[in-house]
């Protein structure tokens, strides 16, 4: 799958124009993009300012010579390139496999254009193969866990290798839920947002503008989305 991730990242880097503000995604595919972007910026003497979606991506970008600034130091972001854990035929997706969903959603919402880069194994007709991450504050998190259990979503706390609870860049917990049997994603999104203590969830609805799929070498734009384009 690394070859496919590479292909998708290469397709994305070709789309980056000089004098733009670029959002750097998180995860292994985004990391390939960050490396390729740094090479391109050096080679073509480009003027690019970057905003990162995680501490790790920001550190990677800076270490490669990219100019990485705080999100509040830019008025908007021209394009963000990020990975995803699963994407459906309507270009809705699940993100947060790397626990960076909160910053990823904030950066995406400040971006004029969002490009996702994935390998072909992540492109499905319906979301639900991947568990949906829900970021919750520590205080009272068991109450949210119990609510998710009552909703039939089989919650599990995300753990580190030593079985302690994983903490996000904002020191919150992640609870992963099973949405295989959920058909109305918008209602689920609203229900999760209404639970006090939920900081964010990894359902990204109507956010991705363009999907680049390695392997299939597909470039799917939301603006051109129709059944014929996606299903063939
Ligand atoms: O959402 C993310 C991190 O929170 C990543 O974009 C997602 O997990 C994909 O990662 P990878 O490219 O390593 O498969």
From TrEMBL:
<comment type="function">
    <text>Catalyzes the reversible conversion of ribose-5-phosphate to ribulose 5-phosphate.</text>
</comment>
<comment type="subunit">
    <text>Homodimer.</text>
</comment>
<feature type="active site" description="Proton acceptor">
    <location>
        <position position="104"/>
    </location>
</feature>
<feature type="binding site">
    <location>
        <begin position="82"/>
        <end position="85"/>
    </location>
    <ligand>
        <name>substrate</name>
    </ligand>
</feature>
<comment type="pathway">
    <text>Carbohydrate degradation; pentose phosphate pathway; D-ribose 5-phosphate from D-ribulose 5-phosphate (non-oxidative stage): step 1/1.</text>
</comment>
<dbReference type="InterPro" id="IPR037171">
    <property type="entry name" value="NagB/RpiA_transferase-like"/>
</dbReference>
<dbReference type="InterPro" id="IPR004788">
    <property type="entry name" value="Ribose5P_isomerase_type_A"/>
</dbReference>
<protein>
    <recommendedName>
        <fullName>Ribose-5-phosphate isomerase A</fullName>
        <ecNumber>5.3.1.6</ecNumber>
    </recommendedName>
</protein>
<keyword id="KW-0812">Transmembrane</keyword>
<keyword id="KW-0472">Membrane</keyword>
<dbReference type="GO" id="GO:0004751">
    <property type="term" value="F:ribose-5-phosphate isomerase activity"/>
</dbReference>
<feature type="binding site">
    <location>
        <begin position="26"/>
        <end position="29"/>
    </location>
    <ligand>
        <name>substrate</name>
    </ligand>
</feature>
<dbReference type="Pfam" id="PF06026">
    <property type="entry name" value="Rib_5-P_isom_A"/>
</dbReference>
<comment type="similarity">
    <text>Belongs to the ribose 5-phosphate isomerase family.</text>
</comment>
<feature type="binding site">
    <location>
        <position position="122"/>
    </location>
    <ligand>
        <name>substrate</name>
    </ligand>
</feature>
<feature type="transmembrane region" description="Helical">
    <location>
        <begin position="20"/>
        <end position="38"/>
    </location>
</feature>
<keyword id="KW-0413">Isomerase</keyword>
<keyword id="KW-1133">Transmembrane helix</keyword>
<feature type="binding site">
    <location>
        <begin position="95"/>
        <end position="98"/>
    </location>
    <ligand>
        <name>substrate</name>
    </ligand>
</feature>
<dbReference type="InterPro" id="IPR020672">
    <property type="entry name" value="Ribose5P_isomerase_typA_subgr"/>
</dbReference>
